[in-house]
Design brief:
2 copies of one chain form a homodimer. The first copy, chain A, has 156 residues and is mostly helical. Helix content of chain A is 42%, strand content 5%. The structure holds a DNA duplex (30 and 30 nucleotides).
Chain lengths: 156, 156
DNA sequence: TATACTAAGACTAGAATAGTCTCATATCCA
DNA sequence: TGGATATGAGACTATTCTAGTCTTAGTATA
């Protein structure tokens, strides 16, 4: 369909949790998982991926856990999502070199590429610190930002 | 992940095709499928769904086929996508009444709802006639449009 | 009436996702 | 030093979703 994976969802929850507890000790995967009623092993996997992409730092050992690697204002929703699910591409055709088998004939490729860019733009505009604000704030969505930044696709 | 289904993709292709041939006779599912190298039965299914949602009209009998039900400028990408895949919801939490099992605790629901709205906004801005324009046009993407229209979620 | 088409929906196969389990490694503290 | 508690990594399973097929029925035209 057109849906965020649950893992990406969990990733956002975890990062937001860490953002709200960053003054304190590191949070373990167990701790976070319990708080939101999510499987602990699954949450651990998600956090591992985030650590891999340097969004969080892991601290081994007892009383270890995870902490944010950057300021919450420096982490976008796109960072988290693409760390977990890979690059955000609304169709398989829109990759740089990527070609569906009907590249020649496919007539919607280019328009969709542009739609994809707009979506990346939205996702990269939303930061974790914005997500932690109360909803009555305008918060979102600098939709008026320049459409072509082109710097997002890079992850993976 | 975060991907358009192939069926939705095919739907866009079909609608665009019909937009470009609307002066002429009705196009059969077979005809369109062949042109783009897609399974004919699958294309038929896709067109049926589009007909169901009154985006195209079906003409039975020999020399029948499909024709657009509206002007290409009146049909948005969102119309086509949600006709085929159902409403566009980036998480299962963001439905009107919809609640994940952790509604109380889930902290990302509201921010994601707002992201979802922005994406709907982008998709509803792109019309089939825009998709038929040549890429060197500015075409896309009235990103500066007001972020909160809220009128989209209704389809299905 | 025969033919060429759509309508509808059950069905199957395969891929993607969610989630589990196990073992290894690092750190802290008694 | 050794046990407890963390993460790291990757194989594994189960379930759900998607793509695609097939079959039967209905409808318009010639």
């Amino acid at each position: 369909m057109f849906k965020l994976s649950k893992k990406a969802d969990y990733g956002l929850i975890a990062v937001k949790h860490l953002a709200m507890h960053r003054q304190q000790h590191a949070c373990s995967a167990n701790e976070i998982a319990e708080e939101y009623g999510i499987s602990a092993t699954l949450m651990a996997k998600v956090l591992q991926k985030l650590a891999h992409h340097s969004l969080v730092v892991a601290k081994h050992g007892s009383s270890g856990g995870y902490q944010l690697a950057k300021e919450p204002g420096q982490i976008s929703a796109l960072d988290v999502i693409s760390a977990i699910d890979g690059p955000v591409l609304i169709t398989s055709c829109v990759t740089n070199h990527g070609n569906c088998d009907a590249t020649e004939r496919c007539s919607v490729k280019e328009p969709l590429r542009r739609v994809n860019e707009s979506i990346l733009n939205v996702l990269s505009t939303v930061t974790i610190s914005q997500m932690s604000e109360e909803p009555h704030e305008p918060a979102l969505v600098a939709l008026s930002a320049p459409a072509r930044s082109g710097s997002h696709m890079s992850s993976t």
